[in-house]
Amino acid sequence: MTGMLARAGRLFAALALTSSALAAQTRTITGKVLEEDSKAPITAAQLQIQGTTIGTLSRDDGAFTLVNVPAREVILVVRRIGYPLTRITLAAGRTNALEIILKKDVLNLDQVVVTGQASGISRRNLANDVASVSGADVNKVSAQSIENAFQGKIAGAQISQSTGAPGGGNRIRIRGISSILGSAQPLYVIDGVIVSDVSIGSGTNKVTRASGTGISVGSQEAPVNRIADLNPNDIENVDILKGSAAAAIYGSKASGGVILITTKRGQAGKPKFSLRLGGGTSTLAYKNGSRRFQSLNDAVRVFGAGITPYYDANRFIDYESLAYGNRPVNSDASLSVSGGTQDTRYFVSLSRRNEEGIVANTFARKTSARINLDQRLNSRINLQVGNEILNNVSDRGLFGNDNAGNSIAYTLTKIPAFLDLRRRDDGTWPVNPFYPSNPLQTIDQFENGESVWRNITTSRLTADILTGEANTLQFIAFGGVDLLNQSNLIYSPPTLQFEPVDGLPGTSANSKTTNLQRNINLNLVHGWTPSSSFKITSQVGTQFEDRVLNQTRASAQNLLGGLEVVTSGTVRDIDESRLEVQDFGIFAQTEALWREKLLFTVGARADRSSNNGDPAKFFLFPKAATSYRFPNLKPGLVDEAKVRVAYGETGNQPLYGQKFTNLDLSSVGGLGAFRVGSVRASSDLRPERQREFEAGIDLNILKNRATVSATHFRRNISDLLITRTLAPTTGFSSETSNGAEMQVTGSEVSVNAFPIQTPTWGWTSRVNWGMNRSKVTNLPVPAFLLGSPQVGAVRIEQGKSATQLIGNDTLPQAGGRVVVPVLMGDGNPNWTGGWSNEVRFKRLSLYALVDRQSGGMLANGTWRHYDLGQNSRDYDELDALGRKVGEVRRTSYLQVTRIYYQDASYTKLRELTLTYDIPQALVSRLWSGASGARLALSGRNLYWWTQFRGGDPEAQNFGGGGAPDAIQRNRELAAYPASRSFWLNFSVDF
Amino acid sequence: MTALRHRGFRLLIGIAAATFIGACQAADIANFNSPSTSQLENAPNAATVNTTVAGMLAGSRGSAGTWASTLGILGREIMNLDGAEPRNVLGFLIGPLEPGGFGTDMAWTNTYRNLRTGYTILDVVDKVPDYSAAQRAGVKGFVKTFMAHEYLNQLRIRDTFGLVFEVPKDPTKQGAFVTRDEAYTKIAALYDEAKVDLAAAGTAFPFALTTGFTGFNTPANFLRVNRALKARLEIYRGRWSDALAALNESFINTASPSATTMQTGVFHVFSTASGDATNGLFDPAPRAIVAVPEFLTEARSRADGSRDLRASSKAVVGSVNLATQGISSNVRPTVYPTNVTPIPIIRNEELILMRAEAHLGMGNRAAAIADLNVVRTTSGGLPALASDFSGDLITEILYDRRYSLFFEYGHRWVDARRYNRLGELRKQLPSHKVFSLVPIPVDECNQRTASLPKGCVNVLGN
To answer: Cα distance from B281 to chain A (closest Cα, Å)?
Structure first.
């Protein structure tokens, strides 16, 4: 034994099975792995003799051969994704052929779910509620970003798409809010390596002046959160660690939940290709309409006498159709190949998705290439590496809030339908005499180019240090680098109508951003099996993470010669910001499983971060969980039940720079200038801390045809970071410190049912439902507003929901009326839920997903601006008192904000797919090499039912990256309009 | 356990241990994007303090546009008809003005931020090792003058609502509100303290000043600016003899008057350099800012029938007619013809008009008329008033102040309030209101719920 290992060490990467030393007492086992009922061969099943390194994979025909199996009684373990883990006892000396029958695990009970940094447990025993979405579910209908593909599929996750622009841009809130100032976005982990979901602004603020005159403000530029770069076709499975109890292993970065993505890996065997081709289009989903002016007098009342020559009672131009009427041709193609030997396996994929927008000249083109390699270096060391290169190019037009009169959707609210701004026959554009811009010209000429190059490398090294029958010890190391380079080029040519308005025709902004995220994660996992019914898995490990984000921006105005390069401008601005964070964590946990029934886990993680006031101090995040399984409780009715209870703590780090009180830099007439910054920092900033208690029950019912899972959680969050508004007379606007406390409670239910599974008919149905409520339980500062009550504000107030929306109302008072801020409603929905059904008849299957948000509230900024432009479609309708309703709304909204606060409930037909499996005979006749082909017709967001007046109740003006990102999500304003998309897909395996 | 003896594993464990130890160094990552206040507070040196003095100028400049534009709207000098921001009409012309309403802050926050910067300088200046005693006095005199100016900027907006005259070093403490008249007293005292410091400041300031201070960048010359600003305060509170005394020590100059001498003064300057600011009042199209149409029509005529030169040189009928919410104007202000045109802080023309007002307040009509005539003949090209003019001289002074100081500092609104003539400001529509003062901003009110300042109310207007 020693000799063999020594040799293996010298030849680090060599195969080291020298059988001679062991030949005396061994035998060879052969057999087949087959599926229950159909008896179809199961390929690539892993077969291993327990407690040894002797193993193999089943071949294409399901057959396998195991050599050097000890002659004594051994246990053969069979593993295959989608099938339960099976153990077969091989009696001493037995050598006859085996027929191993596996039953398809439609309920996913044997799926292994991550519970430690480097360990997992089968779903059957899992003590937390962890949602999973399979790669197949992610790819039901082509989506802009993987988060879109999650919509309606995860109980308790609210996912809203901030803008309809090509390229995506979503915000996820899992189990409600967990922070007031910090980010609510979850942590993304791909193959064990943390990757970035950063949102980087484009620089359009230099043109729109949505917030000040800086080059970029990020939050109001509808940035794409960069997880959208990932190629969904590469995903094998996604696990969502929703609560702290499950996410505690990620410590102080996990308060928003953790999304674990596992990519596909090679399967041993001949190269298998899979080709997917899709083509589609999209159309505008909702029109606001505009006012039909009744008379010249009406027009003069709005636009002044100057409007007279432009007025034409018979002209009614539908500007939304002109602006949003582009009929894009979209495509989505991917090709992957997988294969290899038992020791070397590969998975290679290429994909390209080209999406054009319903607004001309807007698009998102995503190209990616991935290679995943698995190499067994010797009998004990296994190396997995993955590398993905991505390029994402887009132009998302000019949308959202603006203060310069040029955002396209914003401008449309101000253009009367009789005013003709269409391009003239000679190619010139009419000047809009009543507003600074002509939106049709803006669509034609404005460029908002964005290009992202990204490289994500992941690696995992597993070394079996001990492989005894009672004791195993593994060293598992993960490491990875996520390098992201984003380039934004904004070009607003001098010919645009709005450009000379500031006397500086032409604006160009060039931004370069680099985000580098590195982490390494070292673990020792010890398994101890004192008896066949008791197993203890323990691990210790460390994690180190480093993140650097550097942004350099340059802008120019008054572009000489209309050149795009910033050096051609006479008025230039530069901006640079840097960020670096280093985190270090140590963790340990122990998991005990008794008779596959009782599971008990305890663990803790200690984290340190350079963002904390004291960068050397460790913060401890413990967790504990237990579950008990009742197998065969009442066979046929309740086949199995499990009760589970879990507790865990996670944190949310302060943001970079929050611990400093700045001496702000500026310049005045050529002199450098310092001013005391407006935000005062508290010097002892520490992570926010969540303590979550979760309890639930999981049932398998009706002959294992359905699973029901119900979870209730209560989360207490302390040390919440708040920006306390200071009295301005202190000289500071605000102070950032820990202190507030909040409680979030909620429930989730999910049901997976497979009522009919016959060769002819199949019916799968899934329901998920989630709700949560938050309450600020302790606020050491006076109640404060985020936002302005006139256009949408959240008030953080002790004893109240953290998402309550406040607006102005006019109330009678002695001696007159008084305008006071009052409660409008709550931004958080009452509940969210999704229901999907897939019905299969022979080769045809129909799948539909309906997604509902009940409740929630959104301040409707687009409608408000139609009214303010005296241009809304119902402006002239009369109310009971004979007044024009638009006039009443327009003149009273500052005092009665309720008008534009609307219920954001919706029901959306998120996904619809009709699939036809082309008969193998037909496929083979056309191409003998093909093994399966499908044709699918699908659509996303095909229809929605909502009382919300305006494009999309999911839309948000403040996109990711804006603080306070977690809470302030209830303002819609002139977003890129939402669309429905249609696809025709063909896929073939060969 | 045999495996642990193995080289391959030893290598792995070695790498793991090295990584672990490497990671154990706690990273104290600096603030890459900005210096921190500790640099100023804990180890001040001359360079840091000098740069912070420039920060006072930068901060003060940050509010200058607000005085001209927002107070200009309240005082019906200009209108902001930006279609993208209808609250410039809804908020400032219709109202009511609410503590939490649009634009009520009116640089309140920025003012106190400047004051904190000022107090911080005063706190540390005596600790700066590389200043001489005279240089310290120079810093104090300059900073105190600007701090007094900042206080007065707010007092003229909040008027009888008063303000907070202190910025406690500990930001968890709040300064107390004082009444308008107490505030006048304290601000006047601060100007006087600054005067004493400036007198002891030697021949040169240790810090550099912008080109907006050309001619006023030595302690002796800047003292004359200090007095000019003090005179403005005295005019506001109607202490005419104190105003005259201050004016006498100011840079007032009526000798050989010309357009150039009228412009003598100190200015906020702008630049297009990166990190600097441009003049936000520059709106050539115009996109948002127009003069009230009556600015031209109510101008007096010159001997040849043409308009007062101050009207014709400060606004023109443009080709763009901005209209929103039922009001419109095609009169474009030309006071700021470029995006780097300076905004006056105080200049000679105002000093002469102040002296006329002070003389009138003292009952010396002839002296008042003499001063008025300097301005209206030089700047306006109008015929001089007869030395025995018997009409209402207040009306004449207010007319001259309206046209001489148009769109600079929101003078017209403050002047109309001082003389109870807000009713004379023309409303564009009957639904519009004229407001006499501005509430305390809601952020301030919310922090003082225990004893709510009296300015935390809506102002309905008339």
So the answer is: 10
Pairing of strands A98-102, A26-35: parallel
Query: What pLDDT is recorded for position B17?
Result: 67
User: For A472, which residue in chain B has the nearest alpha carbon?
Assistant: B1
Q: How much is the ipTM here?
A: 0.89
Q: What residues of B are in contact with residue A675 (Cβ under 8 Å)?
A: 52, 55-56, 58-59, 113-114, 117
Contact criterion met (CB below 8 Å) for B110 and B131: no
Q: What is the pLDDT of residues A335-360, one digit of tens each?
A: 999 998 878 999 999 999 999 999 99
Report d(CA A776, CA A744) in Å as an integer: 9
pLDDT tens digit sequence for A774-802:
999 998 887 877 777 777 788 888 999 98
Residue A783 to residue B446, Cβ atoms within 8 A? yes
Helices (H) and strands (E) in chain B, counts: 17, 8
Note which residues in 360-419 of chain B have CB less than 8 A from chain A. Answer: none
- Taking alpha carbons only, the member of A426, A619, A411, A564 closest to residue A501 is A411
Contacts of B461 in chain A (CB under 8 A): none
Chain B neighbors of A556, CB-CB under 8 A = none
- Burial classification of residue A916, based on how many CB atoms lie within 10 Å of its CB (0-12 exposed, 13-18 middle, 19 or more buried): middle
**Exposed e or buried b per residue across A942-964, where buried means at least 16 C-beta atoms within 10 angstroms of its C-beta:** bebebebbbbbbbbbbbbbbbbb
Structure tokens at A123: 């779903």
Of residues B32, B84, B174, nearest to A729 (C-beta): B174
Q: Which two tokens stand for residue A656?
A: 């970079």
Cβ <8 Å between A788 and B100: yes
Residue B206, preceding peptide bond in cis (omega within 30° of 0): no
CA-CA distance, B64 to B319, in Å (whole number)? 28
- pLDDT at site B6: 59
Q: Which residue of B has its CA nearest to A735?
A: B171
Question: Which pairing describes strands A157-161 and A534-559: parallel, antiparallel, or unpaired?
Answer: unpaired
Q: For chains A and B, what is the number of CB pairs under 8 angstroms? A: 308
- Reference A167, options A124, A221, A102, A104; nearest CA is A221
pLDDT at residue A964, rounded to an integer: 47
Query: Would you say residue A729 has pLDDT above 50?
Result: yes
Helix pair B133-158, B108-125: axis angle to 10 deg: 160
DSSP symbol at B90: I
User: Exposed, middle or buried: residue B131 (CB in 10 Å: 0-12, 13-18, 19+)?
Assistant: buried
Scanning A385-503, the segments in alpha helix (DSSP H) are: 408-412, 439-445
Shortest CA distance to A51 belongs to which of A471, A533, A523?
A: A471
- Residue of chain A minimizing CA distance to B325: A302
From residue A217, give the alpha-carbon distance in Å to each of A68, A611, A961, B414: 65, 22, 9, 36
Residues 6+ apart with CB under 8 A from A341: A268
pTM as predicted: 0.83
For residue A157, give both structure tokens. Answer: 């996750």
pLDDT tens digits, residue range B308-326?
Answer: 999 999 999 988 888 888 8
Contact of B128 with B110, CB cutoff 8 Å: no
Check if B42 contacts A (Cβ < 8 Å). Answer: no
Average pLDDT score over residue span A24-45: 79
Interface contact flag, B274 A572, Cβ < 8 Å: yes
Q: Cα separation of B215 and B223, whole Å?
A: 12
Give which of A45, A131, A225, A190 is closest to A709, Cα–Cα.
A131
Q: For strands A734-757 and A170-174, give the pairing.
A: unpaired
Give yes or no for residue A18 having a pLDDT over 70: no
Dig out the tokens for A638 from the structure.
């309740």
* Among the partner residues B3, B54, B85, nearest to A672 by beta-carbon distance: B54
